[in-house]
Amino acid sequence: MKTHTRDQCIICKSSQLEHLYTYEKFPIYMGISDDTELYEDQVWGICSECQCIQLLELLDPDILYKTPHNPAIGKMWETHNKSYANFISSVCTEDDAILEIGGGNCRLAKEILANKNIKYTIYDQHQYEMGLDVKFVDNFYIPETYKKNEDYNIIISSHWIEHVYNLHDYIKSFSDNLDNGDLVIFSLPHITNMVRSNMPNGLNFEHTYQCDPYYIQKVMNQYGFYLEKIEHFNDYNDFMAFRKQTIVNIVDLKPPQSKDIFDGFIKYHQANSISLKEQVKHYKNKFLFGCHVFSQYLLYFGLNEDDFVGIIDNDPNKIGHKLYGSKLVTYPSSVVKDLDDVTVIVQAGIYTKEITDYLLSFNQECHIVT
C-alpha cells in the first residue's frame, strides 16, 4: 500500500525531518465507500531546515486516485474558474498554446476558451467530454516518463501542484520542456492559511505537504522561473504566473512558523469535537455535511457516527452511498426540508457559508453548527 517513506524534504531536500503527529488508521480515500476499505497511519513531520510540514509515509497513487471524488461544483468553484481563466488570459495571447495538467472535467478549459481561441491540450486520466476543441491525453503527467510531443508554451494547473509527491521532479520537467519566456501558471491552495484557520481539508493523504506561495516560489526560482504575477483569489487560494528566464534572483523569504500552526490545529480539533457533541446533543435528527474529508476528520477526533442520521452532500453522484470509513449514508440537502428538530454540522472551510445558505433555503428552522 505504501509507496515509500519520504526521507528528504519535498521543498529543500534536507534529511532533517522531525515527527509531528500521527493519525492512526485513517481512511485513505476521501469520498464514497467501496467493497474494500483501507486504512493507514497518516504520519506527519516537519523539516527542521525550511519548516515545511509534510507526510512522511506516502501511499500508492494508483489506489489513492482510482476514481475522482472532488467534482468542484458550486458557486465558489464557478467563481474560481472564471477568475482563474481571466488571470490566465491576462498573460497569454491566441498565438500561445496551453498544456493543462489535470482538469479533465474541462470546467477551466471551457472558461479559458470562452475568453480566447487558443490551442489547448489536457493531460488527465479522468476526462469528461464537453464538446470543446481540446486534445486529450489519457494519462497522468509523470516527469520520469514524460516526453514532449505536444506543441505548447504555457503549462497550467488548478489545484494539482499540492498533490505531487516529488515537487522538484515536476518543476525540473517543466523547465526542461519550456523555453525562455514561456509560462507556468498555478492555482493553488494556501495550505498554511488553511491549517492556521483549522480547516480539515488542508493536509491529508492527497495534500502531502504545506503547499503555499512561499514554498512554491522557493522551488520555482531554483529552476529558472521568476514570479511575474500573483493574484489572491481569497485568503486560501492564490493564482501564480511564473516566466522562465536565464537568470533568476532567488527570493529570500521568511518561512512560516509551521510547527506552532500545526500544534494549534490539533488542539483546536480535539476541543472542537467536545464542543460539537454538546451543541447537537438535544437534537433528534443530526447530520454531518460533506461525504468527504471534512466529516472523516470530525469522526476521527471524537464524534460518534451512531449519533447521526447520515451525511449530507450536494454531489448527486454521492447520494445513497456511504462515506468511506463509516456506516453513514449520504443524502441530498433537501433531506432537511420536512424534518423537525434537525441540526447539521457544517465545517467545510471556505464553502461553509454557501452550504449553510443552501440548507436554509430548504428549511429555515434547520439548526446549523459551523
Structure characterization notes:
It is a single chain. This protein is of the alpha/beta class. The protein has two domains: 1-251, Vaccinia Virus protein VP39 (Rossmann fold, 3-Layer(aba) Sandwich), CATH 3.40.50; 281-369, Rossmann fold (3-Layer(aba) Sandwich). The chain contains nine helices and 17 strands. A seven-stranded mixed sheet has the order 8-7-6-9-10-12-11, with helices on both faces. α3 (107-115) links the parallel β6 (97-101) and β7 (119-123). The longest helix has 23 residues, at 258-280. The protein is globular and about 65 Å long. It starts with a strand and ends with a strand.
Spatial sequence of strands, sheet with the most strands: 8-7-6-9-10-12-11
**Number of distinct beta strands:** 17
Largest sheet: 7 strands, mixed
| Overall structural domain count | 2
CATH homologous superfamily (4th level) name of the largest domain: Vaccinia Virus protein VP39
Unreliable stretches covering 5 or more consecutive residues: none
Please describe the structure with a list of short key phrases separated by commas or semicolons.
370 residues, alpha/beta, Rossmann fold, 2 domains, 7-stranded mixed β-sheet, 9 helices, globular
